[in-house]
Amino acid sequence: MNNTLVWTKKDLLGLEYLTKEEIELILSTADSFKEVSTREIKKVPALRGKTVVNLFYEPSTRTRVSFEVAAKRLSADVINIASETSSVKKGETLIDTGRNIQALKADIIVMRHNYSGAAVVLARNVDLSVVNAGDGWHEHPTQALLDIFTLKEKLGKISGLNVTIVGDIAHSRVARSNIWGLAKLGAHVTVCAPQVLIPPAIDELGVRVLHDIDAALKDADAVNVLRMQFERDEESAFPKQMEYFQNYGITQERLKKVKKNIVIMHPGPINRGIEMSSEVADGANSVILEQVTNGIAVRMAVLFLVAQARDNKSSQG
Length: 317
Ligand code: CP
Description:
The protein has 317 residues and is of the alpha/beta class. It has helices spanning 20-34, 62-73, 94-103, 118-125, 141-155, 173-184, 213-217, 241-248, 252-255, 278-281, 288-315; strands spanning 51-56, 77-82, 108-113, 129-135, 162-166, 188-192, 208-210, 222-225, 263-265. The strands form 2 sheets. It has a 5-stranded parallel β-sheet. The protein has a 4-stranded parallel β-sheet with strand order 2-1-3-4, sandwiched between helices.
């Protein structure tokens, strides 16, 4: 890890925009913060006096709660805004909402939005820090960071690992962020799905594309199983759910033929019996709940680094 690097970005918008060293700095900072959650008093004063606004235009359980817990463990004040109960319902634009939150003297906006690129647009139009908590099909950087953090914790490294991502690659911001992050850290990434769920030009990102799940799992050190996104299924392009489970579902039977210690990941929420069986989701190789726990430390690291960068920028005028 390169601990001499100083984080200079006021925002975290996607792993596409980060260097290998910046990703490693987030991971090593998260390592230091992980211990805080094991204390009796789970709090440090790093963001005391700062205000974090969680601005969510889409439903979320893990990400929203995890950011709130992370901000509170850093002693920040936290305000949650859901678009359904805000002036977004009266037609307020994203930029106007952002500028009003800025006028209320917040320091960081954590935003989930249904449009790809929304976080980039907001970051260009406000001075406060913007952290992307998932934008459309584009990126979900903190999910990929917590996936990579968990993988590294389990297997001791990322470089040289074979990581298979299975499922709805076409509509997945989690897949995109994982591909950027894993590739930058030297992992070999395979994506596996029926052709209809593979986006065009995916091989330009340096991944191997397979349609046969058993071939994709054969040499895998880890498999990240994506959620089937039924709410985005506008054209009924998906294979039927049972057919999907038969052809791509991760089952104990399939795991008999792969590396004994394969790490099973899922960003959640899981569709049990479609993406994987319950035996696999709750089995010995699954790290799904460890991913959720690690999300707190990773998000503490991200909030801390972007706040520090913004403070450094304003002190330099
Ligand atoms: N993994 C994830 O983003 O879950 P939520 O939609 O519940 O935040």
